[in-house]
């Protein structure tokens, strides 16, 4: 059984040796750039972890795992355009380094490359893999659209937000695990447990991300701190703060999330309100709820190789990136 670190190293090696065309340069150079600037490789590593729960022939899951990583990075390229983000992994985002049109097309090409990698899977599991991949792609798009819709809605609730991040973030994490189960010929029930584990740990993962976006540090988080506040994103922190805020705090929140002048002051003022209302503590408690649900599903999986998944859940709460 290989550790998470060893599995991530495998993914990194496979990505470094991935053959992509050289021309047109403005199509493929952005893809190579994105894949070269690092990342935790969490999702493809989870594919390998899930595979080794039931089968020690890891190579059977390499191509699907790489497909998961390319798909994930395709979503990041497009998300960064929509969010007007300037930094990703402490480097310029693709649309900043090139331009929006190049970034959109490079993202599209990366998605197609992901399907090409997936097509190299064993024929016996290929149909299930494609169905899972397609379902995931649609869910991620639905989640992204909900996220954008929230910017123009004034009735978004914490429950609405949790539904959105289940689609946008957790579904891909869960599907990465299911894909590993499929390549290892796991039973339908084992795949369901992997999915349930992934959904719950994926939601916890995003809640931690939301927390770090406001209270993390740029040099470790790899993105501009306060990005969600700058973009007026209705994350769980904002929505819960609105629920608990007094009249003065609510007026300030609503004002800052509808105005863009003096961005730095806006970020600091909103952070202060979040802190005064103990919003970080609320988010941490929510994370624990989803963590417990994830562990319940993980405990039901019949395998002797679950230690890396237990370790992954622990690292989730300790991460600063």
- Elements, N to C (H/E): HHHHEEHHHHHHHHHHHH
Task: Detail the poorly predicted runs.
Answer: none
Q: Using DSSP, what is the number of strands?
A: 2
Q: What kind of sheet is the major sheet?
A: 2 strands, antiparallel
Structural class: mainly alpha
CATH structural class: Mainly Alpha
Q: What value does the average pLDDT take? A: 93
Distance between the termini: 26 Å
* CATH architecture designation: Orthogonal Bundle
Look at the structure and name the CATH superfamily: Farnesyl Diphosphate Synthase
Strand order of the largest sheet: 1-2
What is the domain tally? 1
Into which percentage range does the β-strand content fall? under 5%
Enumerate how many helices there are, as a single number: 16
Give an account of the 3D structure.
The chain is mainly α and 321 residues long. The chain has a single domain (4-318), classed as Farnesyl Diphosphate Synthase (Orthogonal Bundle). The protein is built from 16 helices and two strands. Strands 1-2 form a two-stranded antiparallel ribbon. β1 (87-88) and β2 form a beta hairpin. α2 (25-36) crosses α6 and α3 packs across α8. The protein is globular.
